[in-house]
Amino acid sequence: MSDTIRFRKMAVDELERIRDIDREEVIRVGYQQDGDQLIRMDVDWDTPNWGRGEGEHTHTRIIRFAKHYLETGATAIGAFAGDRLAGIAIYQPEVEESMGQLALMHVSREFRRRGIAARLFEDVLRLSQTAGDARLYVSATPSGSAVGFYLSRGFRPTATPHPELLAEEPEDIHMILELADTEPAS
């Protein structure tokens, strides 16, 4: 990872900077979830950058989503390359008793594969452990890269997804990390 990337907490009024993130991705491996099992699929899901306006995959919607979380007690951590937001993660405490949530994580296309997602995840893990969570929940985009990232960090698909989070993102892969199985983040 480049030494020019700085990580820090973000304030609600900084969330407009999410517009800096290019979410574009070529996806050839996808997943569906059947209980606690994953079904791997060959796919052609080219994901464009955020759109403009009010649709589902727009800057407006994701910024509104992030603001809602921060206004209800979440913490946002940004990865900055100079003045540009290269990545963001949001940790939401107590989605259930003893369970926090990695509510959002995006790294801009040109900054991927540089350790930024790993560092953002470590920061979220540290927040979760400090809060006393026994588990950490994530609703992952069903792409091979996202699911593979979370599986490599110990998350496992859950047969009993959080009902509200499942209703919000029914196509996502719902996973839980048992924190007793992880090393404390330093």
Q: What do these coordinates show?
A:
- The protein is an alpha+beta fold.
- The chain has one domain (5-181): Gcn5-related N-acetyltransferase (GNAT) (Aminopeptidase, 3-Layer(aba) Sandwich), CATH 3.40.630.
- The chain is built from four helices and nine strands.
- The strands form two sheets. The chain has a seven-stranded mixed β-sheet, with helices on both faces.
- Strand 4 (75-81) and strand 5 (84-96) form a beta hairpin.
- The protein starts with a strand and ends in an 8-residue tail after the last strand.
- The model has no long low-confidence stretch (mean pLDDT 93).
Task: Describe the structure concisely for a colleague.
The protein is α+β, with helices and mostly antiparallel strands.
Write the topology of this structure.
Layout: E1 5-10, E2 29-34, E3 37-42, H1 59-71, E4 75-81, E5 84-96, E6 99-107, H2 116-130, E7 135-140, H3 144-152, E8 156-157, H4 163-168, E9 173-178
Parallel strand pairs: 6-7
Antiparallel strand pairs: 1-4, 2-3, 4-5, 5-6, 7-9, 8-9
What is the CATH architecture term? 3-Layer(aba) Sandwich
Strand order across the largest sheet: 1-4-5-6-7-9-8
Helix content: 10-25%
Based on CA atoms alone, the radius of gyration comes out at 16 Å
How far the N terminus sits from the C terminus, by CA atoms, comes to: 18 Å
Write out key terms for the chains shown.
Aminopeptidase; alpha+beta; 186 residues; seven-stranded mixed sheet; globular
